[in-house]
Amino acid sequence: MARSALTASGARLASLLPADVVVTDPDVIAFYARDRSRFTVHGWPAAVLMPRTTDEVSRCMRAASELGVPVVPRGAGTGLSGGANAATGSVVLSLHRMNRILEIDPVDRIAVVEPGVITAALRDAAAAVGMSYPPDPGSVDMCTVGGNVATNAGGMCCVKYGVTADFVIGLEVVLADGRVMRTGRRTVKGVAGYDLTHLLVGSEGTLGVVTEITVRLVPAAPAPHTVVASFARLADAGAAVLEIRRAGLVPSLMEILDRTTLGAVDQLAQMRLGDEVAALLLIQGDGADAADLVAAADEICTRSGAVDVASSSDPDEATMLLEARRLALPALERLGHCLLDDVAVPPSRTVDLIAAVEEISARLGVVIGVFGHAGDGNMHPTIIFDDADPRSRTAALAAFDAVTQKALDLGGTITGEHGVGQLKRGWLSRELDPAARAVHVAIKAALDPQGILNPDTAIPER
Amino acid sequence: MARSALTASGARLASLLPADVVVTDPDVIAFYARDRSRFTVHGWPAAVLMPRTTDEVSRCMRAASELGVPVVPRGAGTGLSGGANAATGSVVLSLHRMNRILEIDPVDRIAVVEPGVITAALRDAAAAVGMSYPPDPGSVDMCTVGGNVATNAGGMCCVKYGVTADFVIGLEVVLADGRVMRTGRRTVKGVAGYDLTHLLVGSEGTLGVVTEITVRLVPAAPAPHTVVASFARLADAGAAVLEIRRAGLVPSLMEILDRTTLGAVDQLAQMRLGDEVAALLLIQGDGADAADLVAAADEICTRSGAVDVASSSDPDEATMLLEARRLALPALERLGHCLLDDVAVPPSRTVDLIAAVEEISARLGVVIGVFGHAGDGNMHPTIIFDDADPRSRTAALAAFDAVTQKALDLGGTITGEHGVGQLKRGWLSRELDPAARAVHVAIKAALDPQGILNPDTAIPER
Q1: Do the domains at A222-324 and A336-418 have one common CATH topology?
Q2: CATH of span A101-219
Q3: Average pLDDT, integer, range B250-256
Q4: Which stretches of chain A drop beneath a pLDDT of 50?
Q5: Which of A218, A413, A459 sits opposite B185 (nearest CB)?
Q6: Pairing of strands B343-344, B71-74
Q7: Which of A107, A138, A145, A105 is nearest to A123 (CA)?
Q8: What kind of architecture, by CATH, is found in domain A336-418?
Q9: A377: which chain B residues are within 8 Å (Cβ-Cβ)?
Q10: Considering the domain A222-324, what is its CATH architecture?
Q11: Highest taxon of the source (chains A, B) (predicted)?
């Protein structure tokens, strides 16, 4: 689309909407044009729409619908898959101004929020009344609840508490043509009609714009007990993870870091983890049985061949014990540019995946650090490359493809919590069978017949 | 449709399908023509299809699709909303022959089953490997997992563990035209594509025929501790329920029975509960903190004015303490014909609902027993009437309408776990807004363009 046409779109949108909702300042547009993904493309959107109310979102969508302009809904832009990247000719619809916590009810155990609320703000507001909102993506201090809903974000809590979808019980949604729809309800149970709530969660802005979110809360858990075990052999760490699951333990956190990641952490923070450590396992329990759980996990790790095991019930010590996990990504980012993968496999195959990544790393001569959620099989193999070197970029992409294919071969999925976006749109057709792909296309057409909602991402191509 | 046309449909289906899959024996057809609902209508289906494999289900749907014959998928027929009632001219597709448990994996904590597996059989198979499949609808010993998926069935476990949807992670589905689609996956997490799994769960056979179900399992909990408290005033029981939620307790069961139900139970089983008892509250805890939870609940009930509190950690005593709940429906059924409602309100409004039911009962001169899931606000006001007396039927329906409307007025839903079916199809339009109704119709058309899957139930009329 020519620059003049873009300007025309922006001008026509401006004529249909309140003046302060439509922003066309090029510097602002540049900031809103993309998310934090690598290896994705973006263009130059005609405008950024910044509505403050559901009614304004509805007017934005009516206007875009009339003009046939593609709309890219956006939370905080912390996504890693290009799900919020905007093409030239589209407009970005940012929900950041809709950032009110409307209600927190500790008896009905729900919260009602606008989509632009920062996830940590909801977490803190729940904690203030003795409740907990568990979803904790890595970007929890920056990302928004609306963005979490769009991608069905996860985090370290998922092994016990589940993902964002497990907490969302109702939505207000503006449809492509501006109509406003409520889904779900405020009750714990309810089976009236199709579950449109969960059709919208994880749909990455392709089916509607979420303008209000009702989530369930759970009573705050006591401070967790922690155990950290280091292993000289990856297979031993894997055996410990399986044994912990087989024993019926339900940790509130079970994370793993591989040798490459640990080396990077050691370089960054001089933690003196030791060269012989091939894997670090971090486990927490937060229930009434936390002490028993940690004791049992300690015993299992020792029996599985851990070279060192440390545990603590002290919150400050727990923070120190988890420091290596917190530093994993920053440490890897010091080695070069990072391409994070986000595959998930059945928990029993987690170590097979990590071993396969080591083999791929050696075969392709690419450094890959692996860390992630050992308890639920969701791993983040992180490929280190040099963005300025085309050969390095090519090798990184080859490694990314090999890892993603391996996850599928192990009975897993191409994305555990980051989303499909632009980055994995081609992969979606390998995970979904032809009938499922056709149903995706049919549902998209049913809800967005013009195809204006985030058209270049997320769902299989027609 | 004339009888001859029906026979012609049956004959043509028979010509397209294996002989033993198509049953046209009138006695068999009569058995399969309806579920256990009241105040619903049914006709005389042309045949009952009894496939044994996914491929046979696919052939059934291809044949029905070619002939344009409506298909009513059916589990065990224990539904209470008319969701499996068949119209004249349709065929019933019974999944009862697909009853194999294909896999139980205690490390990945999943089970894979065919839809005709009895829910109790799955529960027992999970228990045999130290795991638990919590969903426990009242009909658990008769109903099927496929039926539970179709209606998103609940039970007494839901207050802690959630409903069927919270355990389903993947499906194999035969679409209206016979195509086979897989949804979801075997991994704990996964966000590739739309959540078609949960679109199908609770869709009451209107979007596809489920032929395989992957559910997650949880480690078996220790034997529960139990406390039962009787109250002379309903409001006191309500205050106890709210205080238990406010205190952050998470019981594994929290049930309530009202005065009418208790009177019926006393008549049936001479439990000598006493005339002064207006409500009975039954509470269990099953975690590591079960003893603490029961002690805290005991203390709260006493402080809230309970006239009698009994507790036990003994499983046999627990069975005795819960006997009144188990007998609630059989006892009410001895008073006359029963029309069960299934409304749910936010937990904080449970006692308001029960009080409103007492008022409706008095105003309309209809006996209504109330029992249900106090912990999650899902109540079963049970209207007693004489099916042979038109005036009694009319009064029962008026009471049913008044109770259902009251639930909506309290911010609740028309159905917590039984489903919409035929019984509440008219009500669905009161719960859903116009945009949500239109989206239901559009999704139905996208997946079943001919409208042959269970066309007379469940979703809003066009």
Answers
A1: yes
A2: 3.30.465.10
A3: 96
A4: 1-5
A5: A413
A6: unpaired
A7: A145
A8: 2-Layer Sandwich (3.30)
A9: 187-189
A10: 2-Layer Sandwich (3.30)
A11: Bacteria
